[in-house]
Amino acid sequence: MLAASLTGAALLATPALWAVDAKASRYYEDALTRYEKKDIAGAIIQLKNALQIDKTMLPVQMLLGKALLQNGESTAAEVAFNEALRLGVNRAEVVVPMAQAYLAQGKHKLLLDQPLFAIAGLPPDVQAQVWLLKAGASADMGDLRAALKSVEEARVINPRSSSSWLAEAGIRIRGKQLKEASTAVEQALELSPQSAEAWYQKGAVAHVSGNLTLTLDAYNKALLIDPKHVEARVARAGIYLDLNRQPEAQADVDELRRTSAREPRAAYMHALLAERGGQRDVAQKALKDLVGLIDPVPMDFIRYRPQLLMLNGLAHYGLNEPEKAKQYLEAFQKAQGNTPAAKLLAQIYLGESNTDRAIQLLDSYLKASPNDGQAMTLLASALMAKGQHARAAALMQQALQAHDSPEFRTVLGISLIRSGQMGNGIAELETAYKKDPRQTQAATALVGLYLRSNQSTKAVALAEKLVKQQPNNAGFHNLLGMAKGQGGNTAGAKTAFEQAITLNPALVSAKLNLARIEIISQAYEAAAARLTAILKENDKDTEAMGQMALLADRRGQPAEAQRWLEKATDLSGPKEARWGLMLSDYHLRHGRPGAALEAVKKVSGKAPEDLTVLITYAQAQLANGDIPGAKSNLSTATRVAAFNPAPQVEIARLQVSAKNYPGAAYSLEKALSTAPNFLPAMVLMTEVELLQAEPAKAEKRARDIVALYPKRAVGNGLLGDIALSRNQTAQALDFFKRAHQLEPTTGSFLKLFGALNSQGDGRPALQLAQSWVKAHPNDAVAHRVLADAFARAGQLAAAKLAYGNLLKLTPDDGDALNNLANVLMLQKDPEAVAVAERAIAKSPNHYGAIDTLGWALFQSGKTDRALQLLRDARLRQPASPVIRYHLAVVLAQTGRRTEAREELEAALKMSQNFAGRSEAQAMLKTLAP
Length: 929
Fold this sequence. Notes:
- By secondary structure, this protein is mostly helical.
- It has a domain at 572-641: Alpha Horseshoe (Serine Threonine Protein Phosphatase 5, Tetratricopeptide repeat), CATH 1.25.40.
- Residues 4-18 have low confidence and may be disordered.
């Protein structure tokens, strides 16, 4: 599979995926067979055997998670799914079972809030499933409105599925909306007349309505369709018990105990039956079995299962364990409100002499059920215990802003800046220093501000004035070094820092800045020695730790870099956010979005209104798919950035990434209101207007850019984009040519190449690329474009040569290696496998590289290794029809015809045009059931 990009692939754990162990592979295939035959325990054993050999087998971790989930081991299942995520499984593959594992553990709020479960980016069928799981979580938490909204979202995606109607029925029943529940059930039955769950829900509605005859008929129908439907059997047994039809109740309870041995409701009903039969010892054992099943389950789960709370409370009460019973009955009371269980809980309170609590509970209950004689009697007893005899008696008979000073301007300027009014603040500081050059505080602040806004020339000029004023001031030499360093004058910066240290040997900031210059100059040993000396003097110097992290990163020591950043973060002060932000950025750059989000969350608590924190937080949220969260933080960032152009442009870029084009436009309007001709804002606003389908506005702005910046390419480039949006290809090509003539850069080359490539046979584009590469032999981007173009055109020999030239410039380029491997396969060159091995070594978790190696191995006759690699690639990118086709071919070759057919059907449904589609269609015909 030709990869779009491997260079940005997440290098997480760098497992040796290309070295598949044959024995581990056999364990996996056997486990899969057992799983398909419902031998879950056997499958788990074989999967664990495979993991003993190789813990990095992604398909094994995924199947283990599913098997453990089916076996009721939801916590262990979550561990397996998290490992699959760490190894690179595609979120769409794991989101549903992971959500089920979360629900089974009572992690409802996490299911609703975590980015892992964000709907955006998932395939439609998976979106629908996740919406329904979210609906269940919301319903369990008592938010029926949110639950119904989630159900509607699922139904919009898949209106012909009965699942959304069944989910709605359950929610409506909870809300006592029986008419709506009945309508939902009938819709479900119309779509799926042989659905046992639909018949069960029909019975449930009838049950709540009190129609026992219809209830039993529906439960009987559900069990006729699916004798293993636990809910229907439990419900029917309960009715039989209520009706004193004990032999029939006993038959259902016995069947539940045989087929669902860990069903606590069966144990409770067994106890009731035994109690009625005078078998007290059997009843007590059944109650002990029940609490043995529920007590080990975390309360975080049980609290969303009111029936289990009540049952365990009743069981503990029946076992004469009132303190344990109280814990469950109080949780039940909190979840359900006023129910008859209040009476039993009140009895426990009275037994503890907690009379006030008992009275409070019973008063509340009686407001809902004013005629409950037993509750009234209990309340009366409690009132009497408090000496409120008259009320007890009545209850039983039936009854809730003129001096211009430079000093002032300096203070005003600084205060304006701190309040976000950057432009006005800088103006006041510049006026203060101009009026009185002794205002060094204003000058120092200005140098820093110039540096922050990348105005190094102004910063150097002002810092030199300060040094001239006070030549023995080490701090001013240090400031000059910083300004020269930002301007690219590393030799001048080094001299300034050394002078600062000579003047003040204890000036740690100058030593740190000198270490930074040494790192930039690749004088790594000198930098390490300097930083080590700083830390020896102060082992809590987080600045030195941050530079140690940078040094380790430059040396190719990622674990060491991370360790230093984590240490700096841990030692940072309560308002110091920088190191946490660097740690978050570090994780993002290394493909760990989850860790990046966790790091910035901690920082956010320190500085929730800090602009950099807000922007970094949004970046992490975008990387995790949390679009609503990113939009919220960006909205706050826009307010905090006020009318400062540069950060507003940065915010707008992120808004574009979140597809919040109105939000991006708002940020850019603020930037342009302060600096109307600020090029980055003008350019981005043009792009946003184009994204908002406003080509006339975009064209006017692009022409303003051309008029203001006639020697820059960007305006004509934008006009080309606008022409393309109008399908004016000839005009677009003219604009791109003009842009490239004005500024012949890689960027303008790419736009021109793209326009040429979309016309005719693509030969003019190839000629442009060849000419550009010849004139710019070190332009790796252009070499890649040329190689890819040759590959697409089927000029394999030329493509092979072009990829070879690219690899001379970027020898560690996994993308180029992967694409070269595909070219070699098409040439039937046996070197394809070796090149694919090199590609996967550079990008071990990228589905394209894994697919390429798997397919190359299959072509070379190594089917077992090929199968496991292709299974792995399929889990990482299920939306790739090419991968699914490749996997299907190997599955069919190994006799797994049904699975092969499923993969082919999915691939053909995904795309009408992919490499191998005709072969896939032909193959599918040979696998007809």
